[in-house]
């Protein structure tokens, strides 16, 4: 595989994405996707893919960063009256458990966690560099008891100007 080193001006790309309406944290995430190693490109899947109808090119970039949580934008609609799948987040923090009961328990737990995040408008943003460091530390034997991990200390959404509670925008 040919390894190309391409300079990616992250602040410039963040500014460009924000100028087009993206949230600052999301713009930062997307800009950093392009700092990863070269991508795998399949023959017949470059010029032949219609970006208006497929997210394949974005998914090739996105797939270079699979950590504990994966952000998934909605796929394009099949037609104007087709159902809209919507935005998704994959929790990818554990391998398969020993028993079906443990797998089911973890699945239910993740669903409950997502409901709490949505109900309380929690801000769980963590810089990607900290996520990468957490993943590096997690690979060590006995990491759960012997390592320290980065987590947010303040998860409540920031107060909105003029009173009011949550904002839905994170940040």
From TrEMBL:
Signal peptide: none
Cross-referenced Gene3D superfamilies: 3.30.590.50
Keywords: ATP-binding, Glutathione biosynthesis, Ligase, Nucleotide-binding
One BP annotation, GO: glutathione biosynthetic process
Pathway noted in the entry: Sulfur metabolism; glutathione biosynthesis; glutathione from L-cysteine and L-glutamate: step 1/2
EC class name: ligase
Pfam families assigned to the protein according to its UniProt record, in alphabetical order: GCS (PF03074)
InterPro entries reported in the protein's UniProt record: GCS (IPR004308), Gln_synth/guanido_kin_cat_dom (IPR014746)
Xref: SUPFAM superfamilies: Glutamine synthetase/guanido kinase
Domain of life of the native organism: Eukaryota
Ligase found in the keyword field: yes
Gene Ontology molecular-function annotations: ATP binding; glutamate-cysteine ligase activity
EC identifiers of the protein: 6.3.2.2
Keyword Nucleotide-binding in annotation: yes
Reactions the enzyme catalyzes: L-cysteine + L-glutamate + ATP = gamma-L-glutamyl-L-cysteine + ADP + phosphate + H(+)
Family: Belongs to the glutamate--cysteine ligase type 3 family.
Identification of the protein by name: Glutamate--cysteine ligase
């Amino acid at each position: 595989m040919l390894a190309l080193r391409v300079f990616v001006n992250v602040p410039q790309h963040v500014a460009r994405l924000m100028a087009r309406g993206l949230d600052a944290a999301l713009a930062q995430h997307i800009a950093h996707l392009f700092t990863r190693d070269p991508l795998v490109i399949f023959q017949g899947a470059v010029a032949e893919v219609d970006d208006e109808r497929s997210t394949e090119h974005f998914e090739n970039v996105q797939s270079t960063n699979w950590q504990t949580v994966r952000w998934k934008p909605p796929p394009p609609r099949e037609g104007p009256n087709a159902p809209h799948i919507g935005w998704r987040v994959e929790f990818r923090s554990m391998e398969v458990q020993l028993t079906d009961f443990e797998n089911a328990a973890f699945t239910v737990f993740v669903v409950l966690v997502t409901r709490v995040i949505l109900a309380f408008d929690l801000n769980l943003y963590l810089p990607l560099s900290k996520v990468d460091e957490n993943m590096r530390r997690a690979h060590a034997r006995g990491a759960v008891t012997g390592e320290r991990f980065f987590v947010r200390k303040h998860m409540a959404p920031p107060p909105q100007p003029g009173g009011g509670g949550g904002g839905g925008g994170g940040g």
